């Protein structure tokens, strides 16, 4: 308000003083200034609301499919039967060889409201095509600035699992049509309810954001024939984001206790009761305006039948004006789960085998910036080395992220590829 | 013939217009006397920051203003599309909001002349006696 009064006063002074002081100032310009002066005083009530509340949004429309025109096999007799026999292979449990207009499409709207100089409220609602556009809050928090460089937030927050996790739905914010699944498929939940504390500081020319969080989560999961609610408690974590000129780095660590009741499906012995689970991630980015380079490695270590898994990627791209071709190599692997296999619990062993993933991929993509705020992207991601042969356990899932069934039979073609086209916008 | 003259003057003056120096300025009453390119970059990428121990908030010219595009290209090394992508990451994670945009060069001058806590950029030939030049780009 004080600023506005200054501004109005100054405008009036400039406008009147300018007549004699500045011969070059035309009557037209004076009229324009007076008009805008009147306009701003007439609408001061309305603009004070618009000063305090801002609305931003993002949207992606995408199409995707893969090229595996083969149905899942029947598996063996009895418990070895494949419940998805005769169905297509589902990449990340959803994408098939039919074009999907829903899988990648989503819209988000964010409202920021300044309550006072130190406090603001932020709400971000996300509706995804794959959820039938049912809206869900991704961010809903109060932000309180304890000092200008120390912020406390409480409410619903997106989890900082990996470098791009907190904006994973904002397609415009990265060069891929979809974030590398080798890393972004590892942790099966995005949000938590709790709080975080972020301290922004500098050491020389390096800017840092150091953040710690504490909260819990309840995630319903429908990948088994019955609904399981995974409860994460005492979810704590710390992460550091640093930026120096064209470089930025990312480090994170998190810890939680996971519980889940699987007795409804007759899998009581696989129920989890406060098992410790921790994750970590390290990443680096370089962007000098033309050349882009990123690398990241994340891992999740649950002390349960849910297998340990790490994933990583290296990507590089070059901007030729509005065009940016890029290439990415990614790899993921579920490694040592010998504890589960040696425990003699066949239910847990089969859950582990089904959730094990080994996979590598090459992604070739092209991004075109139609205008600032709008892009279109084309992408093909070809997978290979999805066999778990190199591990000690035979009978594990051999189809990477294309199915969780261990009895589907191997994909016959040697170039299983996922294609994506997206249009992203921010506003 | 007229067309030729017009073309000649265009060829003569266009490079001058395009290449006008950009200066980073504050109000004369601000205690800040100079700023490094790295500090400009930090203030504009973080939506504010301390320079010489004083907190300043940056102002921007409107989107698609040629001077703004050059300012970002020269100080931050990013195109308008890259800046948009950068702010998308910041806004949608609640980590920051972009600098406030003013309607044009004259509004930038008026705002700066009356608010010592603001920092902005102008074509070098538009600096009035009430403003202090902290940094010159090219």
Rg for CA atoms of chain B: 16 Å
**Topology-level CATH name of chain B:** D-Maltodextrin-Binding Protein, domain 2
Mean pLDDT of chain B: 87
What's the end-to-end separation of chain A, in Å?
A: 26 Å
Q: Assign the CATH architecture of chain B.
A: 3-Layer(aba) Sandwich
Average of the residue pLDDT scores of chain A: 87
Gyration radius over CA of chain A = 26 Å
CATH superfamily of the largest domain in chain A: Porin
Percentage of β-strand residues of chain B: 15-25%
Largest inter-chain interface?
A: A-B, 50 and 33 residues
Low-confidence stretches of chain B: none
Tally of separate domains of chain B: 1
Q: CATH class of chain B, please?
A: Alpha Beta
Oligomer: heterodimer
Helix and strand succession of chain B? Answer: HEHEEHHEHEE
Structural class designation of chain A = mainly beta
Domain tally of chain A: 2
What is the strand tally of chain A?
A: 16
């Amino acid at each position: 308000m004080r600023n506005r009064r200054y501004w109005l006063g100054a405008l009036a002074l400039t406008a009147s003083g300018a007549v004699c002081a500045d011969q070059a100032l035309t009557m037209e310009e004076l009229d324009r200034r007076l008009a805008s002066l009147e306009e701003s005083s007439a609408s001061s009530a309305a603009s004070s609301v618009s000063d305090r509340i801002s609305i931003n949004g993002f949207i992606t429309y995408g199409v995707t499919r893969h090229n595996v025109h083969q149905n899942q096999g029947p598996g063996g007799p009895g418990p070895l039967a494949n419940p998805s026999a005769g169905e297509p292979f589902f990449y990340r449990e959803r994408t098939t060889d039919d074009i999907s207009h829903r899988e990648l499409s989503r819209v988000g709207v964010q409202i920021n409201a300044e309550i006072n100089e130190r406090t603001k409220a932020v709400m971000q609602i996300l509706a995804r095509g794959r959820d039938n556009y049912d809206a869900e809050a991704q961010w809903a928090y109060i932000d309180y600035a304890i000092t200008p460089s120390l912020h406390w937030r409480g409410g619903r927050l997106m989890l900082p699992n990996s470098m791009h996790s907190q904006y994973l739905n904002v397609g415009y914010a990265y060069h891929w049509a979809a974030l590398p699944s080798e890393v972004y498929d590892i942790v099966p939940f995005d949000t938590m309810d709790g709080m975080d504390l972020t301290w922004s500081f500098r050491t020389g020319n390096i800017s840092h954001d150091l953040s710690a969080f504490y909260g819990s989560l309840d995630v319903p999961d429908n990948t088994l024939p019955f609904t399981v609610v995974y409860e994460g408690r005492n979810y704590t974590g710390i992460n550091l984001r640093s930026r120096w000129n064209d470089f930025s780095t990312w480090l994170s660590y998190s810890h939680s206790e996971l519980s889940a009741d699987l007795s409804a499906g007759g899998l009581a012995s696989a129920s989890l009761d406060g098992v410790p689970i921790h994750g970590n991630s390290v990443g680096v980015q370089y962007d000098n305006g033309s050349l882009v380079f990123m690398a990241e490695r994340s891992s999740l270590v649950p002390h349960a039948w849910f297998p340990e898994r790490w994933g990583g990627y290296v990507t590089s791209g070059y901007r030729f004006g509005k065009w940016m071709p890029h290439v990415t190599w990614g790899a993921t692997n579920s490694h040592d789960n010998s504890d589960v296999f040696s425990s003699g619990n066949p239910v847990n062993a089969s859950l582990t085998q089904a959730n094990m993933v080994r996979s590598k991929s090459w992604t070739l993509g092209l991004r075109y910036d139609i205008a600032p705020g709008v892009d279109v992207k084309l992408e093909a991601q070809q997978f290979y080395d999805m066999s778990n042969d190199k591990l000690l356990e035979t009978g594990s899932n051999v189809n990477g992220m294309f199915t969780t069934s261990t009895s589907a039979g191997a994909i016959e073609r040697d170039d299983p590829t996922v294609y994506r086209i997206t249009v992203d916008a921010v506003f | 013939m007229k067309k030729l003259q017009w073309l000649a003057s265009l060829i003569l003056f266009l490079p001058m217009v395009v290449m006008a120096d950009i200066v980073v300025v504050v109000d004369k009453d601000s205690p800040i006397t100079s700023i490094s390119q790295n500090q400009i970059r930090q203030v504009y990428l973080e939506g504010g920051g301390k320079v010489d121990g004083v907190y300043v908030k940056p102002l921007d010219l409107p989107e698609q203003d040629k001077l703004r595009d050059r300012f970002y290209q020269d100080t931050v090394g990013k195109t308008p599309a890259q800046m948009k992508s950068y702010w998308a990451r910041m806004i949608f994670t609640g980590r920051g909001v972009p600098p406030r945009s003013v309607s044009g060069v004259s509004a930038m001058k008026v705002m700066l002349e009356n608010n010592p806590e603001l920092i902005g950029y102008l074509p070098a030939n538009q600096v009035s006696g009430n403003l202090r030049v902290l940094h010159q780009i090219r």
